[in-house]
Amino acid sequence: MWKKITALCLALALVPASALAATAAKVEIKVTYNNKAISFPDQKPLIMNSRTLVPIRPIAEGLGFKVDWNNTTRTVTITKNKNTVSLVVSQKIAKRNGQTITLDVPAQIVNQRTVVPVRFIAEALDYKVDWEQVTQTVKITDKEAAQAPTQEQPSNPTQNQGQQPAAANLIDKTSIKSKSFNVAGIVSSFRIEGKVETGSKLTVEFDGKWYEVPVEDDGSFVFQKSGDPEITTFTLKAEKDNKQDTFEGEYEQ
């Protein structure tokens, strides 16, 4: 029995690390640009060490960039109009128009394709990147399109016309719990829960926008949304019968 166990351990030790990583990350990850799917003819996006890595050429070309590869220096150069981005395989830095950008993990070669952390698309190529957990999709959008108003975004409640609401204790501050969870190394999931006075209208400020939060009959609520990992604070605002209460908090990591 011990001989068999020893032989198995030796066999696993001889398997290349890249092969093990690829085997462990057989998650079908999709990538879209402005809701249009980007195809990957050979190497697919993968998760390695809790980081989502994507082949840079299909994405960059899908975004309208020209991609060049220098095999001698192992350097990828991406150009579009007056913007030039370059990065060297195995290094955790990239250059965008001469400005240094630090990557959370270095660019790598997988199956003869250069893959980069998906946050590189946001930080170096200057696009908005979101992660949709349900469909396992990396969603890339133009920042201009991402900033367009949506039905989910109500008006800032502080801009209401007429008489200003009177201050009141509508939010149970002791019940508020908030936490952020890292998701695949590219975005975080943010959750806020607690209780307000029954019948209150509740909104939350998240990443510079206001969202209405459904409140249950007993006053309890839960708000959850994905966003940039650098988001650290939030504001709750409850209103009822021309009374108003606010609460400002920070997300626990």
What does this entry look like structurally?
The chain is mainly beta and about 250 residues long. The protein has two domains: about 15-145, Copper amine oxidase-like, N-terminal domain (Copper Amine Oxidase, Chain A, domain 1), CATH 3.30.457.10; about 155-250, Immunoglobulin-like (Sandwich), CATH 2.60.40.10. The protein is built from five helices and 21 strands. The chain has helices spanning about 1-15, 15-25, 55-60, 120-125, 145; strands spanning about 30-35, 35, 45-50, 50-55, 65-70, 75-80, 85-90, 95, 100, 110, 115, 130, 135-140, 165, 175-185, 185-195, 200-205, 210-215, 220-225, 235-240, 245-250. The strands form five sheets. A five-stranded antiparallel sheet has the order 5-6-7-8-9. Strand 6 and strand 7 (about 85-90) form a beta hairpin. It is elongated, with a radius of gyration of 23 Å. The protein starts with a helix and ends with a strand. The model is unreliable at about 1-25 and about 145-155 (pLDDT under 50).
